[in-house]
Amino acid sequence: MRRLLASLCALFLSAQAQAQIIPSVNLYSTYTDNLFLSNSRQADWINLAFVDFDYILNEDFGLFYSGSAHHFNENDELFNHLHQVGLSFARPFGDTGSLYAGTEFGLRLDRPLYDYRSFYQARGFVSAKAYLRPALLAHASYSARRQDYLNAADYSYFEQNINTRLTHFLPTRTTLQIASELGWKTYVHAGDELSFVDFEIPARFGQDRHLLQWVASAKIAQSIGADMGLQIEWRRRAQLSGESRYLGTLFYNPADDLFDDRYSYSGQHLKTTLKYLAPWGATWQSTLERENRDYSGRPAYDATGQSLQQTQAETRYAARIGLQKTFYLDGGWIREIGVDSEWSYRRIDSNDPYYDAGARSYTLGLQIGF
User: Could you tell me the pTM of the whole model?
Assistant: First the structure.
């Protein structure tokens, strides 16, 4: 770590003469009538502030910092903030290729009631893309991430991802894309099952320390006239081995992404997006989604809290309509201002009545570029 910090400082000092700082600020306010997307139906206002500083050292290297904070009007204990700092590298190779690499470090902090979500992480990635033929683009990437939870060490993990993608551009203004991703998640600690026996809580440790998942996807995008485009994407997620760790509701919300991340379920996802370049430089976009999730090892309960003797399964539906407009300013210290609004509806059809619910959300956002 000392050598890395020293190298970053040396790079920073050597490139200050030609460096460029590009800051941006994003503010969002969202009202939802069902914050937890459950039958508890708690409404809330969510306010998000996000700042980003890109420090371009030279044509190859850049430093960045991003920070965000979520504030909940009715559930103040959910307040959290996330900070990330990193270094990126980009360089062309060959006639049509590009190489990207980078590393970043992050820290998230939550309020005491939810401090099991607090973590620090380190991530590195490398990716490359090149045209195999004038109309065929190939992309490959590898990333590795270590995430340590400050107050829930049994869930700390190391994750690796390999992703490959082929994109074919047709003369009919059609784009075809196929992709494959392999993810491998390893819990850093084996876990102590005995510590939970007294509470008679189902726990999964030992044999589920390693999780392997494969994702295949296909996408087609078609231009419809000069101002409209349609995109359809299909994704299949398959759990090849292992199960995410799960502890009962006495300690954590069982729907929390702390353990019910993407490695906890298999299923299919279908998404269609229609984008229209509206008058006055505005962009209108609508999205429809349908996703099936079959959870592995996560029990389903009836309305009285009794086990249904089956794992949780659900179908998720989502619809979003958004309108965005960017204003470009000449002179002054503000370069551009973006305004966007979105309406969304989400619905879960679940065999667990607690999660059989829907939610509507309304969002207004402001982006400022300097």
Answer: 0.87
